[in-house]
Amino acid sequence: MSAEFLYIPGLVLILTGILLSFFPVWLRRSIIIALPPLLLLHMWTFSGGDIQVTWLNYELTLLHMSSTGLLFASVFMFALWAGSLFALQDASPLELSSAFIYAGGAIGICLCLDWITLFCYWELMALSSTLIVWCGKQQDSWRAGLRYLLIHLAGGVALLAGIGSLAAAGGSLELGLLSPGGYAYWLILAGILLNAGAPPFSFWIADAYPQASPSGMVFLSAFTTKTAVYVLIIAFAGEYVLIPIGIYMAFYGIIYALLEQDVRRILAYSIVNQVGFMLVAVGVGTPDTLNGAQAHAVAHILYKMVLLMGAGVVMRSLGTTKAQMLGGELWRQMPWTTACIFVGATASMGVPFTSSFVTKSVVLSGLADANMGFVWALMLVCSAAVVFNAGGRFPWLTLFATPTARASISTSKVDAPKVTDPKGLAFVAMLAGAFLCLLIGWIPQILYSTLPHAATYHPYTFGHILEQVQILAVAGALFWVTRRAFYPSASITLDTDWILRVAVLRGWQSFHITLTSVYARAIELLTSSQMRSYMLIFILHGPRGILARSWYTGSIALWVAVMLASYIILYNLNAIPGLSVLQQLLGG
Amino acid sequence: MRDPISSTIGSKTVSRLLWIALAVLLLGADLIWIPHTPVRHVPQFGTYMLITLVGTGSVLGVTLGLRLLLQRREDYYDER
């Protein structure tokens, strides 16, 4: 049995992650470069059956190769490999270890077949991703990591409660489409949606991810939300609640990205926007939209990695990703990074011959075929509005912002910091991501052939290309006309995290103050009564207390004689007439 | 110093004309060639451009409104 565990890619990555920090640098580098491609090869060539263990009378399936799981696991493996190569330059061993455990959890979820195993991996992901946020070591990393952990542990509790309810109701714990209704169903859905960034907790993505290091955010962008999308595809396909939630997320991401001044936060909001797009597709639940959701998840992971690596290169050189500090001549200083960002941005917008062109259109076509004209129109707008975040605004602010808009760098060419293209493995990672964005766009069959449902969609028709050019032309023109109106200022935009960071905090503070004053009063009362008791005891039993004094023997004998005499007198009162009342009182 | 190329009136006019020509071409192509067959119950002409224009325009409008409502100083949370 123990040898079988080595066939489980998720477990191998988790074990490697635990040990990685203890390895010498050369061995760590070798493992990072070689292990993910080897495991990817293993996944695609594995011909054995499911691997199962029995635990508390439950059959746990630790390895099960489904087409959907394999697709997600493969892109996760690539994300781990490329992210690790990008991270080698400056990431701490702890961050690399956490990334391996984090990716192991995500891949474990994709390749398992029961809710108990899924939950274990789920929690491992929450903990390891929090470590990645903390490894960012930015001003707010610690507090943002705590908020992130709080949200994800709450999601984990909901998920566990749901799984417990499912087990208690005698339902099957095998991972698959859940029957709608019942506490278990809604609790599990709530737990999964928290990880997907659903309202009212969509803020955590933009709150926590940009607090990670340049490479940390590359890892974070790939795994958590997409794992949630995977589980939703498996267990909640066709759940209509996901449609309004997805629409909200899609528009929320666009609007908040437009108000953002930090380019990495723009990309974080763009993640919410695109995950919303996927949720709508899962909610509709037809084979076409499910295919589209999966294909778009893959495309999104790839182009978002490339864009985040581009932002990471800038951050490593300048130490900031505030839009006011970027732009100007940066595109001249790093032509290769600019080219990769260009590929990532065009892929995010769905420009023909890039990855999103062949994936988003599957979703849109599926929505149209499902007779959901209104939802289709909304998603069309969301698809076009990517120009306002990852597609147009991000590269413009990062690389090309005009001289009148930039603040510090361009005003003095002498003082302008030097930004250069990444070198070595980081460059290979960025280039590999950009290459895949183009490859999928040019040869969509590579991706379509891995989808679970038969793909009949043909993206390269004259009509579709023309439609997409029209959409992008209109959105691009609007962006260009309004770009200065939305130039970022040094400000923040309130979000629902205000409830957590201000309302709940203030409530807690006032509760704490009340509790403290009540406690102090109680202590005061207790202390004063205790002190009085102690004083009385001290008076009676202290060194000079009346009961602690040493008495002369004669004095004691005298007092005993007095007491005896008193008793005899009282006893004999019985004989005196007229004193019967006193006798009765004395109980004689 | 002004860019000698972009400040030339002739080239600006040509540039604008090119943009207008592209827009007309796209709209015209939309009117003529695109059947929009997958989507029922929506007009068959200029659908994509119209929806994009109205939709993204609305998003920009809503965003401007929300900016007035929700934007705060950068140190808003630090003060609290």
Short account of what is shown:
Chain A is mainly alpha-helical and 588 residues long. Chain A is 69% helix and 2% strand.
What percent of residues of chain B adopt helix (DSSP H or I)? 55-70%
What is the helix tally of chain A? 23
* Helical fraction of chain A: 55-70%
- If helices are DSSP runs of H or I spanning 4 or more residues, what is the number of helices of chain B? 2
**Widest beta sheet: strand line-up of chain A:** 1-2
Structural class of chain B: mainly alpha
Order of helices and strands of chain A: HHEEHHHHHHHHHHHHHHHHHHEHHH
Alpha carbon gyration radius of chain A: 34 Å
Largest sheet of chain B: none
Mean pLDDT of chain B: 70
**Topology order of chain B in helix (H) and strand (E) letters:** HHE
Q: How many extended strands of chain A?
A: 3
Description:
The complex is a heterodimer of chains A (588) and B (80). Chain A has 23 helices and 3 strands. Chain A has 588 residues and is mostly helical. Chain B is mainly alpha-helical. Helix content of chain B is 61%, strand content 4%. Chain A binds chain B through residues 251, 254-255, 258-259, 365, 368-369, 371, 373, 376-378, 380-381, 384-385, 387-388, 462-463, 466-467, 469-471, 473-475, 477-478, 482, 485-486, 489-495, 501-502, 505-506, and chain B through 19, 22-23, 26-27, 29-30, 33-35, 38-42, 48-49, 51-53, 55-57, 59-60, 62-64, 66-67, 70-74, 76-77, 80.
Task: List key phrases describing it.
heterodimer; A: 588 residues; mainly alpha; two-stranded antiparallel sheet; elongated; B: 80 residues; 2 helices
What order do the helices and strands come in, and which of them pair?
The complex is a heterodimer of chains A (588) and B (80).
Chain A (H helix, E strand, L loop, with lengths): L8 H12 L4 H21 L5 E5 L2 E6 L3 H21 L5 H18 L4 H20 L6 H28 L13 H15 L6 H6 L5 H23 L5 H17 L4 H22 L2 H32 L11 H4 L1 H15 L5 H15 L3 H12 L8 H8 L24 H18 L2 H4 L13 H21 L8 E3 L3 H45 L11 H20 L7 H6 L3
Antiparallel strand pairs in A: 1-2
Helix pairs in contact in A: 1-4, 2-3, 3-4, 3-9, 3-12, 3-18, 4-5, 4-9, 5-6, 5-9, 6-7, 7-9, 9-11, 9-12, 10-11, 10-16, 11-12, 12-14, 12-15, 12-18, 14-18, 15-16, 15-18
Chain B lengths: L8 H25 L13 H24 E3 L7
